[in-house]
Amino acid sequence: MSPTPKESSAYYSYADYLTWPEDERWELIDGVPYNMTPAPTPKHQEILGELFRLLANWLKGNRCRAYMAPFDVRLAGAEMPDSRIDNVVQPDISVVCDPEKIDNRGCLGAPDMIIEILSPSTFKKDMGVKLSLYESSGVKEYWVVYPLDETIMVFILENGQYGKPAVYSVPDEIPVKLFLDLTIPLESVFR
Known about the structure:
Blueprint: H1 14-17, E1 26-29, E2 32-35, H2 42-59, E3 65-68, E4 73-74, E5 88-89, E6 93-96, E7 102-103, E8 106-108, E9 113-117, H3 123-127, H4 129-137, E10 141-146, E11 151-158, E12 161-162, E13 166-169, E14 173-175, E15 183-185, H5 186-189
Parallel strand pairs: 4-8, 9-10
Antiparallel strand pairs: 1-2, 3-6, 4-5, 6-9, 7-8, 10-11, 11-12, 11-13, 14-15
């Protein structure tokens, strides 16, 4: 049974998460459950689809793979039991370059790149607790997409910390730091 708002102050693990109804979307951050509803807007889905298409097409034949939500990312070590994993997120897009991190339940360990598309209901979480979680977990590149402003903030992990983000808007093209010859044209993303 999934947690109710009243119970959301309790501590949960990935073992608990696995017992919740499959038709509900949740994330766990430090054992705290976050409900992933309401459903994304059409604009969110259009941006997600285009970013995913650009990344997935470029990655064909590459060791790295792009995954789109819903896709569980368990931010924990490979040997950690489900009952001790307390960080499970569903980023809009995850890029994973180590095939050993992929299993039938998603990704176990930090993706190399994560993209989150903001909505008014996720802004605080994506720019606060998730930013800190992705930094401490070792996500090398974190993109935060602002659909209303049509801008993207890019955080790059250097020496274990995210520095000041670079901010891009139309007509910019964003260089993907993980892949030296890949750029993402924002006119295509926000058209």
